[in-house]
Amino acid sequence: GYGNDWMQILERHFDETVSATTSVVLEFDQRYAMELDYDYGYVDVRSSATGDVWVTIETMNNYGFTGTPGKSVDWDATSPPVPPGHPLGHITLDVSAEALGVEFDLRFRFESDGAYSSQDQWDNSTHSVLDGAWQLDNITLLDDAVQIFYDDADSGDQWPHATVIAAGHA
């Protein structure tokens, strides 16, 4: 689950893509359960191609009707009832515009607002926060269709760790 007013970031610097000449593709598996229209997962990229500022290239949020907690998406979501155009369980993103031939930073960022998370309600009829937040697996980076990075979340930690106090918090 996850708490209210929460932010968590998984970030890594990639210098492996400097040799890419045609494409850089990011793939990953995901599941998420977060409050519809209030809590979000973001895929952000920063490089010299983005002017060294973070650019959000994908956003994840439960789907459903406004005013409801929404419905979660599981690992194997591939088709309806998830609406067309809604991010499913396996994601493929072309990050060539941001990462082709340059070093870049990738981050997965999850943010929740001040109320209604699994901290407040462990589960409900639509499972909108059950096993909540945003879970990632099988993160793969392809340079010209050749795998240059893979993390299956089981074979060891490939992400540097830093504890950073959020602005405005002591």
Attribute tags:
36% strand, single chain, mainly beta, 1 helix, four-stranded antiparallel β-sheet, 8 strands, 2% helix, 170 residues
Strand content: 35-45%
Q: What percent of residues adopt helix (DSSP H or I)?
A: under 10%
The shape is elongated
Q: Please state how the strands of the largest beta sheet are arranged side by side.
A: 1-6-3-4
SSE pattern, N- to C-terminal: EEEEEHEEE
Specify Rg, calculated over alpha carbons.
17 Å
Q: Total strand count, please?
A: 8
Return residue spans where pLDDT drops below 50 for at least 5 consecutive residues.
none
Distance between the termini: 24 Å
Helix and strand content put the structural class at mainly beta
Query: Main β-sheet, in a few words?
Result: 4 strands, antiparallel
Continuous helix count: 1
The overall pLDDT, averaged over residues, is: 81
Brief write-up:
The chain has 170 residues and is an all-beta fold. It is 2% helix and 36% strand.
What do you see in this structure?
The protein has one helix at residues 96-99; strands at 7-14, 24-33, 40-47, 55-60, 90-94, 104-111, 133-143, 146-151. The protein has a four-stranded antiparallel β-sheet, with no helix packed on it. 27% of the residues are buried. It is an all-beta fold and 170 residues long. The two termini are 24 Å apart. The radius of gyration is 17 Å and the shape is elongated. The protein is built from one helix and eight strands. The model has no long low-confidence stretch (mean pLDDT 81). Strand 3 and strand 4 form a beta hairpin.
